[in-house]
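anyone seen this seq b4? input:
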Amino acid sequence: MNEINLYGRVFIRANIQALTGMHIGGSSTGLEIGGVDKAVIRNPLDKRPYIPGSSLRGKMRSQTEKVLGKKQNNRIGQVTIHTCKTEADYKANGGCVVCHVFGVPAEDYSSPTRLLVRDVRLTDESAEAMIKANTELPYAEIKTEVAIDRVTSAATPRSLERVPAGAVFGPAELVFGIYEQPDFVRLKVVIDAMQLVEDDYIGGSGSRGSGKVRFTDIEVFARESSAYDKTIQIGKYDSVQSLANDFEKIKGKLAQAIKAG
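predicted toks r here
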């Protein structure tokens, strides 16, 4: 059995601001006739929309795969991702950063997934602002789109539920495990993926204007395995760009805080 050592964890916390309306699809079960065609995902306890960690993490992974030109070779449900098929591919050139950071389906040669991403709730401030604004739906707006039949030119209207522009979700929490020395360098993949998400979109209908976001109020801290009850502050940043610009300093501070073998 291979020995696994978790030397510490790096935490990136941030708020996520919707710069345009955002639609992350949920179940339409229970919608009445005449309601919206596509509803947003909501917390069933308080009916507030949220950003699933799987949606954010999936977008980070897909954008990273594309920018690195990785082969989409593993069909999982309705999506296709990149997965190293052999141990040699997994370990080549210092290790496939996509598979090390975001993980692969259980394989004998794989090591623990480095990155986990938690669900991100709508902030109380944004929820209260939407209540005061009396949005068309609870914590949401209705966007009507029209599909045009290219043959008959017949118009088919459809309604889309979106979280309004300006809504803030947070704090988002990205947790990155340090299992070996190269992980300090691999952390940059996470920061780059955050920038890629900002330049793309979260959720559906991104090509039609929805889902543009920005990370704000970013905080980085760490915990070291031998003193896990202590929080080590690394830095605070107002944007992903400033976080990326400071990466070499961050990496140095983390290497001092977390003693990896």
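Confidence is low (pLDDT under 50) at residues 29-34. The longest strand covers residues 213-224. kinda curious what u guys think
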